[in-house]
Amino acid sequence: MSRIAAIKPFGQRIWLDNLSRGLLKSGELARLIQEDDIAGVTSNPAIFYKSISSDPLYTGDLAELKKQDLTAEQRYEALVVPDIQATCDLTAPLYRDTKGLDGYVSLEVSPHLANDAQGTIDNAKRLWAAIARPNAMIKVPATSAGVIAFEELIASGINVNITLMFNLVHVDDVTNAYIRGLEARVAAGQPVDHIRAVASVFLSRVDTLIDKKLEAIGSAEAKALQGKVAISFVKVAYQHYKKLFHGSRFADLKAKGAHPQRLLWASTGTKNAAFRDTMYVEELIGPETVNTVPDATLDAFRDHGVAADKLETNTEAAVEVMAQLRKLGINYNLAGEQLQVDGLKLFDEAFDKLLELTK
Predict the structure, then answer these.
(1) What does the record give as the active site (predicted)?
(2) Bridging pattern class, strands 289-293 and 262-266
């Protein structure tokens, strides 16, 4: 068994945070599914910019699309929707064999719509219809408008990966919107047993920002927290998840076949060379979760990663880390809001570069 496949018995699914036509046609993605138990795939504008700009398999199709009277965004979608469909088809056996737990493939709505609830709803429904696969997920950012859209999409029966979550306000807003969406669907007499959603919580970007603040404070207490905040936050967030989805509020929905919205760990490649390169995987393995992992981190874990159930170890210490952060005057929720704004800006820039490619 590969080191990556050894994670599955602990209840966590590993997804690949990458997608390209070459990855599909070379058989590499199929190999990862077979050998490493990769159970899903995520994409974003930055991933597709890299793929389309560097993978020669897109060149001919893009040249043909540029001869047609289409917008740059229409050309982009004409390139990537078939890739999403092909990936969904590749992972369809996982979806069927696990009764809808595994096999999901995510495509993001236009980041230009991050603050437009109705625009996000319309864009997501159009992409969902275009992909036309039950194991697709539409990615929506966890902005205020995105949360409104998310609730409506769940009520409409669409699988959603809601992304760019950085603090407990985001986690609680999103999970409560998920439950409201399911409740609205039940009230309308619609089934809920086929709907799946994940809530993507970002890690390495958190430590990158917070560690700079801790370095600026400069005290021994501050420096002792460096590299610990993102993991501590996630351990606290997981307790929120358990309380909500294993508690009384979700019980009626669960009895009707509804599934919890799993937490997904994203941005799990370390950005600080002083940290262990697999720490955002190793430290956060636990039941009913997903980790979407970039290629380099996947390679590192395959080489020397250690699979163990650690998500609920040292939870009291994690709470204490967050308390110490407050004592040092660092407002984690405000930092999370800034990180979401920064993340949206990065996705906007990547999407704009994509549209330049397809003009």
Answers:
(1) 139 (schiff-base intermediate with substrate)
(2) parallel
- pTM metric for this prediction: 0.95
Any domain includes 215: no
Report phi then psi at 286, rounded to 5: -170, 170
Mean pLDDT along residues 78-89: 97
Helix axes 45-54, 72-97, angle to 10 degrees: 110
Residue 328: inside a domain, yes or no? no
Q: What residues does 15 pair with on adjacent strands?
A: 292
Q: What percent of the chain has pLDDT over 70?
A: 100
**Confidence check: pLDDT of 1 > 90:** no
DSSP-derived 3-state class of residue 233:
helix
Encoding tokens for residue 50?
């890299």
The angle subtended at Cα 227 by Cα 225 and Cα 233, nearest 5°, is 80
- Assigned token pair, 17: 């945070």
**217 is a domain residue:** no
The structural domain count of the chain equals 1
Task: Say which amino acid occupies 275.
Answer: F
Q: Which residues are catalytic?
A: 139
Residue 303: exposed, middle, or buried by beta-carbon count in 10 A (0-12, 13-18, 19+)? exposed
Kindly report the number of other CB atoms within 10 A of residue 178's CB atom.
Answer: 27
